Amino acid sequence: MFTSHEMKASAILKVSLIFACIAVFSSQAVSLSGDEEVSPPCSAVDRAALLSFKSSILEDTTGILSSWTGADCCGAWEGITCNPTTGRVTTLQLQRPLNGDAFMKGNLSPSLGNLQFLEVMIISGMKKISGKIPESFSRLNHLIQLYLEDCMLEGSIPSSLGRLTSLKYLSLSGNLLTGQLPPSLGSIKGLVQINLSKNRLVGAIPSTFGNLRSLEYLDMNTNMLSGVIPTFIGQYQNLSGLDLSYNQFSGEIPNSLCSLSKARSISLNNNKLIGKIPTQIDRLKSLTTLSLSANLLNGLLPDSLGRLQKLWSLNLARNGFSGPLPKGLQNGLPSLISLDLSYNKFHLGTIPNWIRSRKLVDIRLAGCNIRGSLEPFVSPDSMGSIDLSVNYLTGEIGGFFKNMTILSEINLSSNMLTSDISKLLLPNSLGTLDLHSNQLHGSVSGLLQDLNMLSVLDISSNRIRGAMPEFNDGLRLKLLNLSNNRIAGQIPSSISKLRNLQKIDLSRNHINGVIPPSMGQMNKLEWLDLSRNRLRGSIPYTFTKLLKVKHLNLRANSLCGEIPQSRPFNIFPAAAYGQNLCLCGKPLAPCKKS
């Protein structure tokens, strides 16, 4: 039994504990509330810098900058991230929405150089931000990532960017930058990625770039860079991607590139490289794609090519390689699914069995002196695209396309194939069908049936007869070339249903009748050639709606009447209208007043 004194003491203890708990929770609540209250607002300096940038943007169809209102830029300003402790801006990320035509128009304000604690600056895909890269950006000492991509920036790359010693990721691709690569960039030894592609840069790669031993990705494609490919690139032991394509590099492929054991992709195509492929190329153990096309390379292919176990794409087109294909290619390359040997000095004779028996997706052997008939592939169901053009193939196409259920592109042009085109069994998946310059015959009237994916059709320079087909709304054709055949009859008015058509060539046939006025509805048309037919009547007035036409040829028909007196039709050369019955008006002689 407790005494009354003990009970009082117990009660007092309980009350004390309750108040103690309340005090603890209250202090925590005050502490939490205090944290929220003392969270620093956006720095006034940073806010001013951002608003100065906003004022330099004259037009913003992305809508991003419309959120830049109010005192706190760390709050709801889109694309802005701040340090939660200091309130200083650490990230500026302005990216155009995917699958959109939105843009920002204006200049890249030097005020952004005042964002002293900025770590990430991404201004990408804004299309119309112009001017030079401000020198003030060299003050951004904390910058780790600088992406100024796909705008209209011009001038040279500031050498002062070499002071950004914390920088790891640099991309200035897709602009109008000129001048030489600044040697100072070689001072940023921590750089992991450089992308300067799609500009107008000139000159050689500076020797100071040899200091960039941490590089994992180097992309300088589509510029006007020249000189030899530096041997020091072979010292980039962490490099996984190298793209120097579409430049003017000369000399031989340095053997040192074969030391890039981690490289997965190497693209040196469209340069002026000479000599042979290094025999040590099999040291590129991680390589998955290799493109050396459109250079001046020559000689035999090294047998070591076949030892690239992970290589799935090999493009050697448009060089001077010769001789028999090495046995290493026949027995090796277990991962290969894409092969392009086009336009070299190979004399393959027939499509090699090792190629026909592979489960390939993309095969291009144009201009490889292949003769004889078309022989089927062992795994046709894997084929996505085939180019066997500019060879000496003869005979029927027959069942060549059988079971090619995912084929999207076929080019058998410039051969001597003799099939009836109306009997071809084409896969519904076709997007491009190029059979021009053969000896094909038959009627084209039913060719487009069920080919709703087709965007390019070129069957010009054959022996095709009959009338043009009727066109339906489902067709996606962008290019239609039926020229230099024996097609007769009239142009169907349903041709206007080809709303995506950009180029149409019906020249050198036996087409008669009038030009259908409905063609004036084809507002994407850029190229129109109806020359050397038997067309009569006048040029439809509806053609004045064809504002995108850049090439027109109506020569050698029986057309009469006034040429539409509006651009572009009255500024095409007179030759575009010559040898007709009685056309008049600019650019021809004035029409006679009745």
From TrEMBL:
Residues 46-83 form the Leucine-rich repeat-containing N-terminal plant-type domain. GO terms for molecular function: kinase activity. It is found in: Cell membrane. InterPro entries: DNA_repair-toleration (IPR053211), Leu-rich_rpt (IPR001611), Leu-rich_rpt_typical-subtyp (IPR003591), LRR_dom_sf (IPR032675), LRR_N_plant-typ (IPR013210). Residues 1-31 form the signal peptide. SMART domains: LRR_TYP. Its main location: membrane. Keywords: Cell membrane, Kinase, Leucine-rich repeat, Membrane, Receptor, Repeat, Signal, Transferase, Transmembrane, Transmembrane helix. The keyword Cell membrane applies. One of its GO terms (cellular component) is plasma membrane. This is Leucine-rich repeat receptor-like protein kinase. It comes from Canna indica (Indian-shot). The lineage of its organism: Eukaryota, Viridiplantae, Streptophyta, Embryophyta, Tracheophyta.
